[in-house]
Amino acid sequence: MSQLSPASAQTALPAMRDDQLAIAEAIERSWRRCMVKGVDEQAPAHDQIITAQELSQRLEKNRLLLTHAEPEMLTLSGQIAHTRSLVILTDSDGVILRTMGEGVEQGDIRASLLPGASWSEEHRGTNAIGTALVERAPISVQGAEHFMAYHHSLSCSAVPIFAANNQLVATLDVSNDLNQPQQHTLALVKMAAQMVENRLFHATAQGEIGVHFHARAEFIGTLWEGLALFDDDGQLRAINRSGQFQFGLPLDEDVLANRRVPFADVFDESWAAFRQRCQGSDLLFPLQLRNGARLFARTSLQNTARARPVVVQARESAASLEMLDTGDPQLKLAISQVKQVLNRDIPLLVLGDTGAGKELFSRAIHDASNRRERPFVAVNCAALPEGLIEAELFGYEEGAYTGAKRKGNHGKIQQADGGTLFLDEIGDMPLSLQARLLRVLQERCVTPLGSSKSIPVNFMLISATNQKLKDKVAAGEFRSDLYYRINGLALQLPALRQRHDLQRLISLILQVEQSPHTEINSEVMALFARHPWPGNVRQLHNVLRTAIALADGGEISLLHLTQDFLEELQAAGQAAGNDQPPRPALTLKAQSDAAITAAMQQHAGNVSAVARQLGMSRNTLYRRLKALALS
Ligand SMILES: Nc1ncnc2c1ncn2[C@@H]1O[C@H](COP(=O)(O)OP(=O)(O)OP(=O)(O)O)[C@@H](O)[C@H]1O
Question: Domains plus CATH for the chain?
Fold first, then answer.
């Protein structure tokens, strides 16, 4: 076990060194590397794209990563929807695996931001993805900081993602045109990358007893807690990166490879005494490292990865039908209708605006059904590339199509056998596929591409859409026979602005975010109550998640809302005109700027004191001060 450093054990917050300075130095190092290697500054933007076959091999190799990254990419893409950005996931070589969002406008660069394009530093010079991979650190590269002239119109922020053994497995990046708003982008990418890393850790790490720890009690249960998993005998089996940082372990090697690390090598206590002390309790207790540093800790019982059933799920179910029933009458009606028809083989059609919670609701239905032990397989009919959707749904036989896995593949329909098939955005399914889907639903059999054998399947069908399917039927864009086949019972979810349970919904979200005690001040609550929420519950969830992080465990106030959301609130207030209560004399952004300026004066420019008073992190404060030109 390497020497534990008391300094790093005191905190898991980023080192005190200024982020901006570290980034500038990293960019300089990268430029030197590019010059030494003779990277061509004028190379065209799209000359490093791998073949479709190589891409499908890489997608296959990174299946676990994709499963855990996609939900977080979706959330991130929602958080920054106003910036016309592209959210990008690459593998460890910098090859793009998946993108989400609108993306940049320039044609040439667009082509180089498609799956299969390489953004390694060797191929594309200094850029956020390639440089984050070499530096093994988050980085934001703006405009002319890019080595190649072609990329000077881009703004990119990338964060490396590590597997449990400290192996660098991916980067998560957000790229957009330089003229789009960039505030908070790197911070949001960091949060999303951390979520992916945590998901990967939980999916792969083994160990029976989890010790969650941090030098600051309020960080336990958050994204940044240290987590060490021990087996029954007190041997360390896995530790996340925050934990390694706190222990002072190296972050660039597999710290547990060929090494036994007993509990007492790390903590100043025997395993037996520790077990005795924390038995049966999930309360926080003090714990001391061997080097004397004091921590807070909590224990949990883990399911080992081996014991977990392999279930094809894009993300874990977050709520039961009972939890979702937060008091809104229309939602209550939908829930009681579901309960009446549950387990009767009636296809359900869930209707509602985007972000209203259709998928969450559908997962809760699956969990309430007698199919809950079987897979819930979600297919987003709008997100699948047209050429792949057939293979994804119906599967394919060995060698059936170029780039296919040699052994063939079960389609989603077959994977859902015994469980639930969730067809999201069904209104976007191409007409040609609608006919094949109808046949599967009628015959309850699926025939993989390139096969003549049909395979019986049995699943509960839940479809969802935010479109007016009846209008699509009338316009000839959706088959009427399929419409009636999927619509055994239609369940309408209310838009957030129509709901009467905002307060309880917020409490539920705070609970989901493991921050049940976070307070929201009355000014913010009043603004929330009259906002029309175009992005529905997804938007509310994103706003709260970001605010919880920015508030650092304190009360959420205007200061913890992002600038773009403040602008959206302001614009919605203005659009609502006279029916709205009088608007504040200052804009919301101006109010929060004024609070920062006043606090800076009060504390004579002491940034730490101001950050403490306003309940925001120093990094956020630095960014805001920079925008205000006060630093
Ligand atoms: N009742 C709820 N409680 C907590 N969070 C919720 C709730 N409903 C929705 N959400 C949040 O909103 C997000 C979006 O929900 P979901 O994916 O179910 O919406 P959707 O209607 O299927 O959206 P889309 O039409 O865009 O596919 C969820 O990931 C979750 O963050």
Answer: 39-202 (3.30.450.40), 205-301 (no CATH), 321-494 (3.40.50.300), 498-628 (1.10.8.60)
